[in-house]
Amino acid sequence: MAADTAHPSGPSAPGRTSKLAIVGAGAVGSTLAFAALTRGSARSIALHDVNRAKVEAEVLDLRHGLMFTSPAHVTGSDDVAVCADADVVVVTAGAKQKPGQTRLDLAEGTIGLMRQILPGLVDVAPDAVYLMVTNPVDVVTYAALQISGLPRERLFGSGTVLDSSRLRAVLAERCGVAVGNVHAYIAGEHGDSEIALWSSASIGGVPLLDWVPLDGRAPLDAAVREEVHREVVDSAYRIIAGKGATNYAVGLAATRIIEAVLKDEGRIMPVSSLLDGYHGIGDVCLSVPSLVDRRGVTGTLPVPMSDDELAGLRASAASVRGVLQRFGF
């Protein structure tokens, strides 16, 4: 069956070629396309950007590497029709975050952009699962749900998947273990009010709060945990200050989310979705450990939280709601 054929049975239906559409050919979108191509995430990759010269150049560059990847078809255009019948649509287009600017500062321009682009995308890819990567991702995801009218399970944000990867990387380095042995989540807003779920974290099966340091390393006491958390929160600002944008890790993180959908993995990931009574929190998009499969986000895990963690999650929800109300949501 051709890559652009309709698929009522959902993304990656048996016998069907998968198609990934990426909206925005900037640093994040082009890096995401490269990551998806090298990982063999989808058989067809389409790039869409209003800058025709830029998107055509990115596609040409990617095509020149096809000899070294799994078989794939790469295309791109300034016409939204290039996204037709995609299984997954990833939206990376938005205002660029400047040094010293918070993610929430980006909200106004980005919401306006969503009003422009989403109706056309839904017209050409009505059955797709939509992944929002544009910051501020929690605000953008909520607004996109209202603008698009898509079901809550089929439109969600990349959330704190990247933040959780950052947390695991920092903990692994401090503890002298492989990143794959660290299991820990960042929850809440993808931004300054995000929280670390220390009480459910573990290293090699040992609860993090019971971790005994190896080789004379520092214990993970409250002060060290606060240092780790601050390093995670500040890391994006450091990267933006140094090179102007974050792109590699977010491209890889988004690719793993895409694969969870296209391969129907049933993977637990802290994506940002519309909550409804999660620990008493609702009507806001926040990141909590969630089940991601070919249908999108199909459930949230009621992870045990300490009183401080729960208070932090509620404060994060209030912060995001405050921004949404500012823009009439």
UniProtKB/TrEMBL annotation:
SUPFAM superfamilies: LDH C-terminal domain-like, NAD(P)-binding Rossmann-fold domains. Residues 19-157 form the Lactate/malate dehydrogenase N-terminal domain. It is found in: Cytoplasm. GO terms for molecular function: L-lactate dehydrogenase (NAD+) activity. Substrate binds at Q97, R103, N135, P136, V137, D138, D163, S164, S165, R166, T246. Keywords: Allosteric enzyme, Cytoplasm, NAD, Oxidoreductase, Phosphoprotein. Signal peptide: none annotated. PANTHER family: L-2-HYDROXYCARBOXYLATE DEHYDROGENASE (NAD(P)(+)), L-LACTATE DEHYDROGENASE. This is L-lactate dehydrogenase. The lineage of its organism: Bacteria, Bacillati, Actinomycetota, Actinomycetes, Micrococcales.
